[in-house]
Amino acid sequence: MAVLVLADHDLGTLSPATARVVHAVAELGPIDVLVLGEGIDQVATDAAGIAGVARVLVGQGADFTGDFADAIVPLLQTLSANYQHIVSAAGSVGRDVMPRLAARLDLMPVTDVVAVLGPNRFERPIYAGNAVQTVTANQPKQVLTIRASAFRAAASGNAAPIEPVPHQPVASAARVIAAHRTESDSPDLATAQIVVGGGVSVGSAEGFQLIEQLAKKLGAAIGATRAAVDAGYAPNDWQVGQTGKIIAPDLYIAIGISGALQHLAGIQGAKKIVAINSDAEAPLVKLADVALIGDLFTIIPELIAELDKL
Ligand code: FAD
């Protein structure tokens, strides 16, 4: 009943999502983590440090750079013979790789898992997060993508053995032409413990600097509504919601955000919500644990000034 977790990594750094995925499947059996790519020694060492990991399997090769599914799936298919569960985070790689693997294995993939109830029972959100479906998948193996933000990270301090995994290189039909990256020193939005989100009412990209200042004081990641992104006030990768990132922080501070259904779909895992809004009737105000009713341009500087005193 072993479990194979496909590690998520970028630029030689293991994504925090991997430790969360390991925690999610910890009860299902001994866990091997598969690390694929080039220059991944540190990634493998970090994966071996996650509590609960039995082994780290390393597939070195240029064919894995770019994370293309057509290069990854054949190896996963070969390895799958030894595993009951083949799992990844529900990120861009997992969403690409796991359905293809499931098709090759003639299995139904169970995607976006937010709770593992047993070896073949899982919960996943449906209807843009408005309902939770319990899936019982009676099939010989399970191919899963896990919504990492729904789980705590497994602890560190392990030193699992690291083993090479031989493979036949597969030339992908795709190639990377360019990668455009956003430099940021704030935490990863999808796994941050505190998120400060701004809406279109922030009014401008300069106005968003106020949101950024507050986020920095709190060590928080920055989120935005689609309306704010569409208006050009915030970059695309800050968008939270149905067509943006799914977040599950301990604290979400929603500033000038009405609480449209498509935004709420992305914040349902938030443990506590603070809404700052001039409209006491806004849906997000009604949903929030704490609401501050007033003008964000007054309240945020006051909050920052109070935090400066700490
Ligand atoms: P608004 O709804 O305009 O709300 C602004 C809020 O700011 C109001 O509550 C107002 O009272 C408050 N306000 C105004 N001035 C102040 C002030 N000075 N101080 C304090 N409060 C103030 N949206 C997402 O966020 N994420 C998604 O992933 C997403 N996906 C979508 C997918 C589809 C297919 C569609 C159709 C829509 C999607 N949307 C998404 C858009 C969504 O429907 C809403 O339009 C959007 O979330 C609204 O953003 P907002 O809260 O910033 O703006």
TrEMBL record:
<protein>
    <recommendedName>
        <fullName>Electron transfer flavoprotein subunit alpha</fullName>
    </recommendedName>
</protein>
<dbReference type="InterPro" id="IPR033947">
    <property type="entry name" value="ETF_alpha_N"/>
</dbReference>
<dbReference type="InterPro" id="IPR001308">
    <property type="entry name" value="ETF_a/FixB"/>
</dbReference>
<comment type="similarity">
    <text>Belongs to the ETF alpha-subunit/FixB family.</text>
</comment>
<dbReference type="GO" id="GO:0009055">
    <property type="term" value="F:electron transfer activity"/>
</dbReference>
<feature type="binding site">
    <location>
        <begin position="239"/>
        <end position="243"/>
    </location>
    <ligand>
        <name>FAD</name>
    </ligand>
</feature>
<feature type="domain" description="Electron transfer flavoprotein alpha/beta-subunit N-terminal">
    <location>
        <begin position="3"/>
        <end position="180"/>
    </location>
</feature>
<keyword id="KW-0274">FAD</keyword>
<dbReference type="GO" id="GO:0033539">
    <property type="term" value="P:fatty acid beta-oxidation using acyl-CoA dehydrogenase"/>
</dbReference>
<dbReference type="Pfam" id="PF01012">
    <property type="entry name" value="ETF"/>
</dbReference>
<dbReference type="InterPro" id="IPR029035">
    <property type="entry name" value="DHS-like_NAD/FAD-binding_dom"/>
</dbReference>
<feature type="binding site">
    <location>
        <begin position="225"/>
        <end position="226"/>
    </location>
    <ligand>
        <name>FAD</name>
    </ligand>
</feature>
<dbReference type="InterPro" id="IPR014731">
    <property type="entry name" value="ETF_asu_C"/>
</dbReference>
<keyword id="KW-0249">Electron transport</keyword>
<dbReference type="InterPro" id="IPR014730">
    <property type="entry name" value="ETF_a/b_N"/>
</dbReference>
<keyword id="KW-0813">Transport</keyword>
<feature type="binding site">
    <location>
        <position position="277"/>
    </location>
    <ligand>
        <name>FAD</name>
    </ligand>
</feature>
<comment type="function">
    <text>The electron transfer flavoprotein serves as a specific electron acceptor for other dehydrogenases. It transfers the electrons to the main respiratory chain via ETF-ubiquinone oxidoreductase (ETF dehydrogenase).</text>
</comment>
<keyword id="KW-0285">Flavoprotein</keyword>
<dbReference type="Pfam" id="PF00766">
    <property type="entry name" value="ETF_alpha"/>
</dbReference>
<feature type="binding site">
    <location>
        <begin position="256"/>
        <end position="263"/>
    </location>
    <ligand>
        <name>FAD</name>
    </ligand>
</feature>
<dbReference type="GO" id="GO:0050660">
    <property type="term" value="F:flavin adenine dinucleotide binding"/>
</dbReference>
<dbReference type="InterPro" id="IPR014729">
    <property type="entry name" value="Rossmann-like_a/b/a_fold"/>
</dbReference>
